[in-house]
Request: fold
Amino acid sequence: MGRWCVVLAGGVGSRFWPLSTPSRPKQLLPLISDTPMLLDTLDRLAPLADAEHTLVLTNASLAEAVLASAPALPTENVIPEPRPAGTCAALAWAALQIAERDGRDALMICVHADWAIGDVVGFQRTLEFAASLAAEAHALVTVGIVPSRADPGFGYIQPGMRISDGVMQVERFVEKPSRERAAEMVADGYLWNSGIFAWRVGDLLDEIAALTPEVAPALRAHANDRDAFFNAVQSVAIDVGVLERSKRVLVVAGDFGWDDVGTWAALHRVRARDASGNASLGRTHALASHNNVVHTDGAAVVLYGVDDMVVVVRDGVVMVTTRERAADLKLLMDSLPPDLRELKSLSSDTDQ
Reply:
């Protein structure tokens, strides 16, 4: 039985402007360590599956950049999506490719490219356990993260009946709640919905065929034509299209320092901080300043008497906001003129 890892690496990461742009998305940037987030992800997965058994799904416009960042991946293992069609379509197509190469019993472990993981060994052990469970039980297995806080930015999983040590049925999935409801759910033992999955590819394809009309007809009609499939499919998340409808879903708890790095403010949780709580990358001097996030590609940043700020410097552009408002950068992006949004013109001016 072969084992494969599938990495979802699409999206732009607009909440990381001005560092992240359509041609430089966050998964290709060194936001947590000195290497791009995608490479950090592939390194964590290497003990679970080699490059020959690792697929990366990304936007069609980013395929060449992904291959350049991860040259160990075979070209055919970087799958360009002609248009965003939701995680269900992406994972269905990945499952179909794996089934054709390695049979329907092959195991598939699914992750995203933009996570921070504190305990890498614990992460790997949990994924190993989830994959073994999927193989033995013919189940769709998800890893629910033991929450470290009541975060309204995540979805939640309510565990149901205990099946065995560390294994539970899923009672229900809950979309992003209010902060008050999130606190109640954490107290009641809910888990964060991480987006980590493990299953036999045949089991996933069978459930899609039976439960997911948004995807199944396109998969049947265009199994040999990737572009036609992605253009025909209806966009739906894997959670909504399959897991919420299936009776074969199990959850295992994961407690390995997982964090979804979705905004500049999230870097305050996952980066090293100085004695005043400032998380910075690049030359920074801070006096009487606390709990700030700084990222500079060149110019020095000096902070004096400010708290809870985000300061980002790239190519002559300085973006300043608060950690609280950092989640609203999509609104800022919509207001920007095209040259600022992509920074192409400013980069050219700086180079002259």
Summary: Confidence is low (pLDDT under 50) at residues 345-352. Residues 120-137 form the longest helix (18 residues). Residues 277 and 291 are 4 Å apart (CA to CA). The chain has two domains: 3-260, 264-351.
